[in-house]
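Many introductory courses stop at the sequence. We go one step further.
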Amino acid sequence: MYVYNSIHKIVICQACRSSILPGPERQERHLRVEPHRLPGDTLRTTVQLLSSYDLTLVIVINVVYGLFLYVENKDWSVPQKRRL
């Protein structure tokens, strides 16, 4: 359900094709809504797993033939486009 890329420090949720942001509060918020709606213990276990990854803050722009185009936006300045 989740793909972790340790080189680029991102997790992609395959169910909704979005990146999982770092931080347990953000991850829990993501997993509580559709299409996930994870219940109590499953939610806690999944957040614990996702929180164990070393993640960077990214915004996914587009997915083209399995290649993710994204901007790295750690300080909310003007981002640069990069290709994985």
